[in-house]
Amino acid sequence: MSGERKRIVIGKVGGPFGVKGWIKLLSWTEPREEIADYSPWQIKQGEGWKEWKVAEFRPHGKGLAAKLVGLDDRDQAAALMGADIAVWRDQLGETEPGQYYWADLVGLEVKTTQGQSFGKVDGLMATGANDVLVVKGERERLVPFIQGQVIQGVDLDAGIITVDWDPDF
Questions:
Q1: What phi and psi values does residue 72 have, to the nearest 5 degrees?
Q2: What is the phi/psi pair of residue 34, to 5°?
Q3: What Rg, from alpha-carbon coordinates, does the chain have?
């Protein structure tokens, strides 16, 4: 990985919650409540980002709600509706060997064990059974992220994922 600081989107503001500046959240973290562990957040406002510290957080029904420091009324909260919530990659911490944040895989080149390049990881999808790499090159390929079977190696420093996958798929 480069020394450049990378912003990772981990959720979205769903809208205001109550009249005292609380916001509803959509979280992309696993488990979803873990989003609160990454304060401060960067919230996209217009063309830029503003840093917000989480003052309080709680699950609410099937959703999540948070109170941010300095966000004190419903109108302010409503202005953030739909905004991305991000953190700096270094806030996420290190992973265990063989585990990866999706954000670390995006942009890596995908090559077969024979050295044929499929292109670069454009994104990932959760399918329930396993995650799937969306690889874009001369065409788009969906490659199951099953370590030891399909995924033969991930070299973050070299920027390469080696796969045992039929080029015709």
A1: -115, -5
A2: -65, -15
A3: 19
